[in-house]
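Section 3.1: Structural characterization of target chains.
Under the original work plan, the team committed to producing a structural model for every single-chain target entering the pipeline before any wet-lab resources were allocated. The record below documents one such target. The sequence was received from the expression subgroup and is listed exactly as submitted; it comprises 206 residues.
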Amino acid sequence: MQAAPAPPDETRYNLCVGNGAARLKLAETELTLSADGISYELDGRSGLRPFANLTSVRLQAVNGGPRSPWEALAELTFSAGRPLFVHSSSPWGVDDPQRDTTFIAFIEDLHRRLVAGGHGAIAFRRGIPEGRHHFLIVVTLIAAVIFGGAGLTVLYIGLSGRAGFFEVAGPLFGLGGFGFWIWASVTRNAPGTYDPRHLPRDVFPE
């Protein structure tokens, strides 16, 4: 298969980033993609992070809440120094449709450059790490027992005639929606790998 043509020499994207350090608000910065790597400024430090030092790219969905759109996160790990976390959200972690579009353009551009540059040693991963995913499954099972029991109790009350249909319908729908939200978090972020020529768009922001 022919490699995709390389994008223009440099492209710039304004997005929110972090380096794994605890922070109340994400930093806003300009990310510059070039043939050699990615340049940006964070916490007073700036410079080029060469693609030659990039060891892995992880794309994962970020659940903003039961009534919030999905966000996304790209974790870029290098052979030296802290990783770079690129977010699709606003600095406070809430949805921003314009940033969603910019984030997707950045991810597509990054992968085109990596494929065109022949960086075959990079690991491309999707979803959360396996250890966190296993923990999330355990939490989901515990929640299923707790909220499933609550749902059965509400259903029993309704069937016994001690409450009307509309009195039990709301809690049942609420419990069902919460359960679906938790299950979506488990399935959407299942760990795995992907081909950089075919991006896992199911983890992209909505």
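The longest helix spans residues 130-159.
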